[in-house]
Amino acid sequence: MNAKGRMDVPDGLNEEYYQISSDILQSFNKFRPPLNIYMFKEQVGRIAPYYQVGGRLTKEQIEVLANMVKEGLIFVSRNDHPVYVKHIAYQLDLVLVDRNLKEREIADIFLEALTMRMNEFFDQPVAAVKEKLWTDLMVLTEYLWNDVYRIKALSKRLHTEHSLANHSVNCGILALTIFIRQKPEAFANGDITRNHFDRLTVGFFLHDLGMTKIPAFIREKPKPLTTDERAKIDKHPGLGYEMLGKLDLKYKEIEACVIEHHERINGKGYPQKKSGRDISKLGRIIAAVDSYCAMISKRPYAEAIDPLKAAALISRDPLYDPEVTKLIQAWALTLKK
């Protein structure tokens, strides 16, 4: 036992099991937990089943279970990680209190949770649903604020199939990766405020907000768009910008990402025809990332391109900030390691 009265986990046990906390236990259904539960038998030094999915705990078992959790004697199997991911995804803030999760496991949970929230919000882009998404994005920024290098595990788990939600999550994660890689010392030096980091994160994830106003049959069309359909698509940055006021999201960082993600360095983008450094730093990041993430996922009208090949293609394209595309190339190289 340690100084807090909890059992010290035996060497190697955490490779196969999560030692769960009271917070995690309380998030389970009281009588029917969503996954198998195991107890550590100190007298023999072995794990044994305590509850099997499909059963029902009695009130007495619930009380015993709560006490054993406090003593550090209760575990769930890492083989049940997919179930655990889906469970925690609905209460994402639990990743901040579960000290037994590994970074790659937390990354799986964030990808599941944020994709779920983005789908919900894009299906119903109203203030009430936005608040749930905002809450989960703030869990992400809290997690990264404590160690920005945690973004590495997240960036290795991008979706390979395109959808509006999948694309937005991919862009949010990769844009944050590029932003952090540009000046990692800015976080250590305190040059970046938490409010700024919170808002730019939301901006990266919601850059395609206006696409919710474009009919799905146009967004997902497997054939070339007509002139009229292309004109509708081209309106989405402005449509998204108009939506920000109704959603109480009128922050400069979010506005820049929404209105500038189709601007191009040579002035040939839209809707404002900005060029060069007239495009904000965040706008230049999300513009390149938006195009790149579209290339590396399977779309209705095109197969996915290998991330390294896509990075090489975009790095040669004069439409994008070369500082950003160079960092995308550097990131793509890490996927091979």
From TrEMBL:
<dbReference type="GO" id="GO:0016787">
    <property type="term" value="F:hydrolase activity"/>
</dbReference>
<dbReference type="InterPro" id="IPR037522">
    <property type="entry name" value="HD_GYP_dom"/>
</dbReference>
<keyword id="KW-0378">Hydrolase</keyword>
<dbReference type="Pfam" id="PF13487">
    <property type="entry name" value="HD_5"/>
</dbReference>
<dbReference type="InterPro" id="IPR003607">
    <property type="entry name" value="HD/PDEase_dom"/>
</dbReference>
<protein>
    <submittedName>
        <fullName>Metal dependent phosphohydrolase</fullName>
    </submittedName>
</protein>
<feature type="domain" description="HD-GYP">
    <location>
        <begin position="147"/>
        <end position="337"/>
    </location>
</feature>
